[in-house]
Amino acid sequence: MEIERKFLIAQMPDRLEEYEHADIVQAYLCIDPVMRIRKHGEKYVFTYKGSGMMMREEYNLPLTGEAFEHLLPKADGSRIEKTRYLIPLDSAGNPLPPGVPTEGLTAELDVFTEPKSLVMAEVEFPDQVSAQSFEMPAWFAKEVTNDPAYHNSNMSKNE
Amino acid sequence: MEIERKFLIAQMPDRLEEYEHADIVQAYLCIDPVMRIRKHGEKYVFTYKGSGMMMREEYNLPLTGEAFEHLLPKADGSRIEKTRYLIPLDSAGNPLPPGVPTEGLTAELDVFTEPKSLVMAEVEFPDQVSAQSFEMPAWFAKEVTNDPAYHNSNMSKNE
Lengths: 159, 159
Known about the structure:
Two copies of one chain form a homodimer.
Chain A: E1 2-9, E2 21-30, E3 34-40, E4 43-49, E5 55-56, E6 58-62, H1 65-71, E7 76-88, E8 106-114, E9 118-125, H2 128-133, E10 140-143, H3 152-155
Antiparallel strand pairs in A: 1-5, 1-9, 1-10, 2-3, 2-7, 3-4, 4-6, 7-8, 8-9
């Protein structure tokens, strides 16, 4: 079970390229349930997610590169391409400098190049209480957790 | 983890239609790993199976009817259609009469109509020891556990 909140970004962290990051290509075979194929760096994974917004049953299962290439033409709509940066946060939710480990939360900062330019951050929480008590730091612009337009699966739909 | 052995059939059980049975339609999005969609009676399920012959990591995850219909045109090759009969076995591996519960094993007897006519039985075992000690009863003709030609995923391939 994952508990996460999503935010648009007001200000990018300094020294962004020094944070741990990886290129991601993903596409969707189905939206409900979500059936996603993803290349994450040199790893390939198939993900199934059940229904629901903030809490969703999720399975991540291994794929080969051959299976990924076989499944990619079967996907609906557009593929998504983005670079994911892992940004460790201090207790106020602000970015720690690159290389400083966090004792708390990490933001996944996604810089999309396909199907359009967009920057979005996801924060995963260990439980409901910490998710609900998290206050939006100033470098986040707006919460979009409950806006379906910012589900990656909907972003992949052709207009 | 499932441990199963597969057999061709020498003699069909008497009173076959009185055993519990259901119509199955299934097709494959991918063969390695196996990614299968199935309609089983009125239920829809997506199955992922890792590599290996007799023991394979398997996940069965729910689909909606809409998701099944959405995914079916994405499948490779031919769809498989079969009726599955559940045949309770006595301690010698012979069919118990319809309606008699088994304290032991059950054979899944698959009568295929698509892509071709074929009858095959699978027996699932609780552990390796019982799988290895099972002796083939006379109503089974031949073991095909390790013959890839009798994997449903290979049967779906277009010749």
